[in-house]
């Protein structure tokens, strides 16, 4: 539950927000009332009232046969309007489409969200039948994925220590879990401009990433090309690395009408 910051904090609105957030996740996109109340630690009576109110506004849908709740049709409208109103995301879309076309890979944009996690907020498919399928809204710990290293690369020393306080989880056999080696790679990222990872988060998946910066040089998020590792030979990898390094130099949002560097 979110911490109340002032007298204006409304518990029922907080519950509604957490219900919607829960239903955006891939693993909990369809849930029963009991599953929701258990996960959010709220009473069934309160949760049912919130769900029925959200349902009345089209924000939640209810399947009478399965007794499960999922996101409603009006969330499509909200998502579309949000993408249009976020200037940097609207400006990034053409670059993502260009990147998908040039690389033949799925391109995703990940941003940091509360709870020390990254979340996919946008994606572009290349049309390649051999592609990696991801869901916008998926969340994962910053230190679990290779491209989470970009978060640490742009963080101060205190924040780095905090993010690594609980150690590094062995997600796959290729995951780097030795803190000194991990931080050494983090330190090299700004000079390299691109990060290549094979199977660190998901076996058989290649991830090539670059940072997306704001006008002050801070990290807005990470642009990632995802593909099947076995399908990418060294020549193709060199090309992919070159394209993503170029994208990293262009992905600096100036906050104006021009969006990102041309």
Q: What key phrases describe this protein's structure?
A:
three-stranded antiparallel beta sheet; single chain; 262 residues; 9 helices; six-stranded antiparallel beta sheet
Structural topology:
Blueprint: H1 11-24, E1 31-32, H2 33-40, H3 44-56, E2 60-63, E3 68-71, H4 74-85, H5 87-103, E4 106-113, E5 117-124, E6 139-141, H6 149-153, H7 157-163, H8 179-192, E7 195-198, E8 205-213, E9 219-228, H9 234-250
Antiparallel strand pairs: 1-3, 2-3, 4-5, 4-9, 5-6, 7-8, 8-9
Helix pairs in contact: 1-3, 5-9
Could you please describe the fold and organization of this structure?
The protein is an alpha+beta fold and 262 residues long. It contains 9 helices and 9 strands. The chain has helices at residues 11-24, 33-40, 44-56, 74-85, 87-103, 149-153, 157-163, 179-192, 234-250; strands spanning 31-32, 60-63, 68-71, 106-113, 117-124, 139-141, 195-198, 205-213, 219-228. The strands form 2 sheets. A 6-stranded antiparallel β-sheet has the order 6-5-4-9-8-7. A 3-stranded antiparallel β-sheet has the order 1-3-2. Helix 1 packs across helix 3 and helix 5 (87-103) runs antiparallel to helix 9 (234-250).
């Amino acid at each position: 539950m979110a911490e109340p910051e002032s007298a204006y904090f409304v518990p029922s609105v907080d519950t509604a927000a957490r219900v919607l957030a829960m239903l955006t996740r891939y693993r909990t996109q369809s849930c029963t009332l009991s599953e929701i109340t258990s996960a959010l630690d709220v009473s069934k009576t309160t949760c049912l009232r919130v769900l029925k109110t959200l349902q009345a506004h089209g924000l939640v849908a209810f399947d009478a046969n399965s007794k499960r709740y999922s996101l409603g049709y009006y969330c499509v409208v909200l998502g579309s309007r949000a993408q249009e109103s976020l200037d940097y995301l609207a400006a990034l879309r053409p670059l993502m489409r260009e990147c998908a076309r040039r690389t033949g890979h799925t391109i995703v944009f990940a941003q940091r969200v509360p709870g020390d996690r990254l979340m996919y907020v946008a994606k572009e498919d290349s049309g390649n039948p051999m592609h990696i399928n991801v869901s916008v809204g998926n969340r994962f710990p910053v230190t679990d994925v290779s491209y989470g290293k970009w978060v640490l690369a742009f963080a101060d020393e205190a924040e780095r220590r905090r993010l690594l306080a609980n150690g590094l989880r062995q997600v796959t056999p290729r995951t780097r879990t030795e803190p000194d080696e991990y931080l050494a790679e983090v330190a090299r990222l700004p000079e390299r401009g691109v990060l290549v990872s094979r199977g660190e988060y998901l076996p058989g998946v290649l991830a090539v990433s670059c940072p997306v910066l704001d006008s002050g040089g801070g990290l807005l998020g990470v642009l990632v090309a995802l593909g099947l590792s076995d399908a990418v030979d060294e020549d193709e990898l060199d090309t992919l690395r070159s394209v993503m390094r170029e994208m990293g130099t262009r992905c600096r949002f100036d906050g104006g009408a021009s969006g990102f560097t041309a």
